[in-house]
Every structure is written in C-alpha cells, then in structure tokens.
Amino acid sequence: MKLKSGKKLLGALLLASLVGFASLPAVSAEDAAPADGNGPAVETREPSYPAVNGHYKNEAFGMEFDLPAAYTEDAGNKPYMYQAHLTDYNMGLMVLMQGRKAGISDSRLKEEVKQVEEIPDQMAKGSKDVKIMDKKMVKAGGYDTLQFAVRGEHDGKPFISVNDFILTNSATYMMSFTMKDTDYKNNQNEIDEILKSVSFFTVWRTEPVRTTKYAYDLPVDVKVGASGGINPDHILLGTNGRLLTGVMVVKSSKRSALSFWPESLSGLTEQQKKGVLDGLKGYLSLDPAMKEAKHLTMDFVQIKAGDAVRVDYDIDDDHTSAWYFAKDKNSICFDYTYGKEDADYAAGIVEKSTASITL
Q: How far apart are CA 147 and CA 312, in angstroms?
C-alpha cells in the first residue's frame, strides 16, 4: 500500500511553503538590527495562550484549532485550504485538507502512520533546494502526527517551514508554519500551542432511505451503495471502514415468516411483547449467518423515532446492534455492525445516528 495521496499533499505543502514565505512582510530595519553586532536581534515571545482570541473551525472536514490574538486570514480561503498570517510571530500558516474516498479502520491507520515517516526523506532526495530537519512524531487531536521542519531558500533568502502531517480515519490534514529562519526558535512554542489545540469532530449528513420516506444521519465518510449481497432485504448499506450500517424494509404481510409482526409496537401487553420477541428470534434464525451468533439479546426500547425492538449479538469479532420498528405495515430495521477494536468509536456514532431516525 502506497500513500500516493500523502505524497501529493506533501508536495503541495512544500510548494505552499515557498509561496507562504514569499508573502511574509519584509523585515523592518529595527528587526534586522543586530543586538550585539554578531547577528539579528533575538526577542523572547511567549505564546498568547490561554487568552486566545482566534479560533478556526472547518465544518466540512471536522477540524478546529485555536489561533493567537493577532492574525489575518487570506481572502481566498476554501473548505479544503486555510491560510492566515500570524502577525505577532511574522509567520504564515497554511492548512490543506483531503477527505478519504472511504474511511479506514484503526489497524489500517496505524500501518499508514508508520509509512508516512519515510515520505519527507523521499521528497528531500528529489529536491536539492530543501533540507529536512527535526523530524519527530507528536500528537494532534489525539492522533499520531509526523512533524518535520524544512529549510529552504526563496530568492536567495533562507526560510523554515514546520509541517505537521496528520492522518485520521476519514481524512488527511497538513499544517504548515512558514517563517524566516531567524524566527524559528522563537516561534516553536506558539506552534506547539496551536498544535495542542487541534481537535477533530464527526461531520454528519442526513441519508434518505431510497424508495421510502425514512431517513437517518450518518458520518459523511460513510459510503452508501448497494447491499452487496450481504442481505437481500437491505435496501441501503454503507460503510466507512470502521462501521457497517444498513436499513431493511420488509412488507410483513408479504412474508409469511413475519406474520407475527404487528402494525405498531406501541401499547402492547406483556404477552403480546413476548410473542413479538419469540417471533423475531425465530425469524432471525432463518438467516444461516445467525447460527454463529452469540450473546443474543432482544428488548423493547423507546427512542425518538418511536417504540422499537433492539437486538444485539456477536459473530466472531464483530458486534451488531439493530433497531426494529413497525410502521406502514412494514418491518423496518436500522442496523450497525463494527469490530471490537472500533467499539469506542461506534458507541457515539450509533447513539447519535439512532437518535436521528425519522419514519
């Protein structure tokens, strides 16, 4: 597996570093004056935290971070690219964002993180104008992040660009801080503080269930397509590599095995509820895959969409949670399947998604 998209982003970022450096304000005569006759004046600057006045939030890619009090945003910013000049530090900031075609699992993400450590050295071999320095792994928004500094020249003037390559399960992010080489040491604390403030959040969309009036919310990285033969009753199936979700809609009157299914799950007596649970257990047993199911539980629950039967079970290392509804003389099921390693991630996603179901 080769990270072609990662190399492409890095190449774009190194080019952006040149552009960013060229756009920095010219050094003033006062800044250029040597402090002791041996070199440029050195000013100790503390990060402008915790009194942060600036904040960036990208609703399209689910990323946010704090900014120092004094900054100017570029007028040409786009959802996938953000640029700003951090005035007090005479430092340019650029963030590039690229969503994945499909999300990946935590184990796959760990593999990719290992591979990205090699990319800066590979890129340096292809260009004699840049030198990679201070390469290390740091944290950003809870994710392992490759940070490396690039020393280069533009019009004969040296610059340094500190770059942070952040891989998440759903996207790739590149942050670049560009400055004069003489400002590098002074600006390191501010760069660290901004990176510490980075956080990521799930971006959602409402997914209509085709041929019905039903809908529910899913993370934007969940790719929805045909059922793929997993279950012919699924009229919707989607995955992001960490979570598989689907919707089944079956006319109970046209399926003899569903003759027990009521027109409504509301107002049932305890005896009627027992009949529904026994019937559903028998119906599920018709699926050959359920022969491997363990830890099967079934309970009546109430959620925003109405009364439902929640079914949970495990098959090998995968867990499935499903919500069955009765409406329009249909048996309607919204189900979610995920591996044990993604249980923590899935818990929050399933809770929010099921709360959004509309029938």
A: 42
